[in-house]
Amino acid sequence: MMKRRVVLTFPPEVVERPVISLMIRDYDVITNILRAEVTEGEVGRMLVELEGDGGNVKNGVQYLKDQGVTVEEAIKDIDLNDTICTSCGVCTAVCLTGALTVGPPDFKLTLDKDRCILCGSCVDACPFRLIKVRF
Amino acid sequence: MAKSYEEINEKIKKGRAVVLTAEEMTELVKSEGAGEAAGKVDVVTTGTFGPMCSSGAFVNFGHSDPPIKMHRLWLNDVPVCADVAAVDAYIGAAAISDSEGLAYGGGHIIQDLIEGKRIKLKSTAIATDCYPRKEIETEVALSDLNQAYLFNPRNAYENYASATNSSEKTIYTYMGILLPNYGNITYCSAGQLNPLLNDPDYRTIGIGTRIFLGGGTGYVAWAGTQHNPEVERNDNGVPVGPSGSLALIGDMKTMDSKFIRGARFHRYGVTLYVGIGIPIPILDEDMAVRTGISDEDIETYIFDYSEPSRARNRLKKVNYRELRSGKVELKGRMVKTAPLSSFKMSREIAGILKQRILEGAFTVSRPVEELPRDGGLNTLEERRGER
Ligand code: SF4
Ligand code: SF4
Q1: Any bridge partners for residue B178, and if so which?
Q2: Boundaries of every domain in chain A
Q3: Is A86 on the interface with B (CB under 8 A)?
Q4: Is A57 helix (H, G, I), strand (E, B) or coil?
Q5: Which of 3.20.20.70, 3.40.50.300, 3.40.50.150, 3.30.70.260 would CATH assign to domain A2-73?
Q6: At A62, which helix (H) or strand (E)?
Q7: DSSP H helical ranges for chain B
Q8: Confidence of residue A135 (pLDDT cuts 50, 70, 90)
Q9: ipTM at complex level
Q10: Mean pLDDT on B64-72
Q11: Cα A86 from chain centroid?
Q12: Residue of A nearest to B108 (CA)
């Protein structure tokens, strides 16, 4: 048995297809969806834990890739140094799940860990390098 | 009911001036009208905190013994222009490190100096009779420098463009990371808090105007490079897209790195986030109308940055209220928007400047000379063999 945590990105045209359920059925992979941000017609992202026989997990992942899904290893956690964060909002540009936002009333950066899928995209985006990955 | 600079300063000194931030003024003008607001309010404070690549600092190191006429110069491995006298130099904010590349550069040196950190200095020279030395390696801190002042050729842009990416690939730009297929839109303006957008006819902001710069006090030195007031203006009299700009000067020794920060845009390069606040005296009703402007009244165009050309495709006109809402409709889809400049810090700066004026520590100043209100932009043409 093996376990892998991955971030899946679905292009809008793939969001509507039941690729996850087909993978579970055809490859016998236990799939635990930890976080998901999926809206019809938009890019969807998901943090999932795949568990099963090594070969099955590998084939399942290959199946997802063949369906047009991008599969990336998930990081463990992100660390935000918010004492010197300027709330510029540059990081929010690449956070597709809406975990990072700046908005009214105070326009202070907020990180909603419940929406974070640990894709790590924000790490490179911060011009002050205040977001660090924990593996 | 017109007021003079002198009358306003008299009130500031007596602690009787009424000072509002640009956002508070917008509310007041909305509820009571510009006429009433002009009578009540003496000064409106503006603020902005964003990436301003056209920035840098003049420094003077003092002379070593034996002395050197610095020719090539590196500070923390970042090449710095030393071609001004023997020990003067200009640290360009966008200069990048010889060893670390895009990760560290001029903007970071400026921040490190302001934070009191020691910087490695290395210089080589051609020996002369009066400057016999050929090289030097040492360390310097801000307190060692005779003078250190920011001189930023182009800051506080009056409005700016907004960016998106139509291509299939992620692109890395000075407008941030732009995701493929119109995946996001970035923008960069303090909007209703932006200094020049609150004085779009440059009636009170001009050469010599005293300002808040990087936490300390600075001045408007000149019209900024690419100052271009003749762009399209909307019904509210403000430019749609980049137009006026300011060259600013200020003593680094009075600054605070909270308001002046080195930054790097991934796979693009190094820049400097500059905090600027400019007070606007409410001389008459017209100035109240101008400072009453809101994000809704200020528009810009979204451009397609995937075209590596001077003439990028203009996709859509939007206002800052829409941009700041977090989503804008583009090509039939709702696309995520994100700022590059900090609205929170812009607001904080306008608030600090307001406080300094209320305390009598900061007065308004009549421009020594006005900024140009006309003149367009030239482009760089490639010519060969023509003399
Ligand atoms: S890792 Fe960063 S970009 Fe990715 S979802 Fe979490 S907060 Fe957003
Ligand atoms: S990009 Fe960095 S400084 Fe800006 S809001 Fe995000 S974490 Fe804060």
Answers
A1: B171
A2: 2-73, 77-134
A3: yes
A4: helix
A5: 3.30.70.260
A6: helix A54-66
A7: 5-13, 22-32, 34-40, 106-114, 285-291, 320-324, 343-358
A8: low
A9: 0.93
A10: 97
A11: 25
A12: A128
Q: What is the pTM of this model?
A: 0.91
- Determine the Cα–Cα distance for residues A130 and A125; give it in Å rounded to an integer: 10
Q: A42 vs B333: CB contact, 8 Å cut-off?
A: yes
Long-range contacts of A111-115 (CB under 8 A, 24+ apart): A111/A78, A111/A80, A111/A82, A114/A35, A115/A35, A115/A37
The mean pLDDT value for A46-68 works out to 92
Helix spans in B209-342 (H)? 285-291, 320-324
- pLDDT tens, position by position, B275-297: 999 999 999 999 999 999 999 99
Cβ within 8 Å of residue B322, ≥6 positions away: B328, B337
Residue B153: asked if its preceding bond is cis (omega within 30°), the reply is no
Q: Whose CA is nearest to atom 6 of ligand 2?
A: A91
Q: Would you please indicate which residues of B are annotated as catalytic (active-site) residues?
A: 130
CATH of domain A77-134: 3.30.70.20
B105 neighbors B96 (Cβ within 8 angstroms): yes
- Tokens for B120, please give them: 């490695």
Residue B217 structure tokens: 């006090």
Do B41 and B28 touch, CB atoms closer than 8 A? yes
Per-residue pLDDT tens for B179-230? 999 999 999 999 999 999 999 999 999 999 999 999 999 999 999 999 999 9
Backbone angles phi, psi at B110, to 5 degrees: -60, -45
Q: Rounded to whole angstroms, what are the CA distances from B6 to A9, A115, B35, B285?
A: 62, 55, 21, 17
Residues of chain B with Cβ-Cβ distance to A107 below 8 Å are 342-344, 347
